[in-house]
Amino acid sequence: MGLISFDEKSGRFRSLTEHLHCGQFNNEGNINPWHLLPLFIPQWDGDVSSVLEQKTADDLLTNDTTIFVRSRICRIFPAFHERITPSSTILTDSYLLCRGKTSYEFKSELRDYKDEILLARLSQQDVFVSLATRRPIPLPMWFGDLYRPQKDSNHGNPEYMQRISQKPMKHVVCAQLSDCDSNHHVTHTAYVKYAQDCAFHAVQQNAFRSYSGDISRYSIKTIGILYIGEILAGDFITIEAWEDELQSGKLNFIMLKTDRDVCHCYLEYYLGTKSNL
After folding, report:
1. Does the pLDDT value for residue 72 go beyond 80?
2. Taking 50 as the threshold, does the pLDDT of residue 50 lie above it?
């Protein structure tokens, strides 16, 4: 995998994922949802400073600052499930858009290397944060000047969920060390894994009206995540899950740690099996 190009005028990165591997797919031939998010991050090896003549998000970081991922929404189109196999090669196009004073949007698209057909799209909201106060701080002026969009658009990232009146299905998980980074914080992809595991058990119990049998039979359509708090290795997390009352097939999840919300998430699958997309 590696960086192919960087367009200075548009600020767009293009990188190449040379191939996937069988471990990213389940027995039904569907990619596991938690393996999708890393595909959207530009991949390159070695020193690319000669290519990146403009400043990027990495130039924001100092010993006193960090970037907090606030939310993500990932849309996977039928072409992904129709075309992509463990031997596929994927192009990743990505760019940044400044949003307000303290946050920016990271956008990324996956395309088939053979003909550049659009496969999936990610919109991610990142917040510039002080390590000392853990509060948002203003982005540098150069960042706003460089990445301010020509015209405003609705990024459509997930918002807080409203709990339903009826009793939701509940599932409890313990965060494993293998789900964590070097600081023992649960990684972003692990949240999706927890939601998928919860969906698996709920479907086994006939808790959702639109799904039956094994949730792995269904190809993922949309992943939406709002990160609210941190989960550490050893934490016990209660997941409340229900199917959306207004949108069939949309599964909502609220993750709680000691009765405090730490994540709101939803998963939506194509209601036909992989062969019927």
Report:
1. yes
2. no
SS3 readout for the chain: CEEEEEECCCCEEEEEECCCCHHHECCCCCECHHHCHHHHCCCCCCCCCCCCCCCCHHHHCCCCEEEEEEEEEEEECHHHHHHCCCCCCEEEEEEEEEECCCEEEEEEEEEECCCCCEEEEEEEEEEEEECCCCCECCCCHHHHHHHCCCCCCCCCCCCCCCCCCCCCEEEEEECCHHHECCCCEECHHHHHHHHHHHHHHHHHCCCCCCCCCCHHHEEEEEEEEEECCCCECCCEEEEEEEECCCCCCEEEEEEEECCEEEEEEEEEEEEEEHHHC
Percentage of the chain beyond pLDDT 90 is: 48
Contact 274, 219 (CB under 8 A): yes
Confidence of residue 264 (pLDDT cuts 50, 70, 90): very high
Q: How far apart are CA 206 and CA 47, in angstroms?
A: 51
d(CA 110, CA 116): 9
Amino acid 223 reads: I
Cα-Cα end-to-end distance for the chain: 29
pLDDT at 215: 93
Query: Which own/partner pairs from 209-214 qualify as long-range (CB within 8 Å, at least 24 positions apart)?
Result: 209/243, 209/248, 210/243, 210/248, 210/249, 210/271, 211/249, 211/269, 214/28
Q: What angle do CA 58, 36, 123 make, to 5 degrees?
A: 55
> Using 50, 70 and 90 to split pLDDT, how confident is the model at 155?
low
Residue found under tokens 């000047």: 145
The predicted model scores a pTM of: 0.87
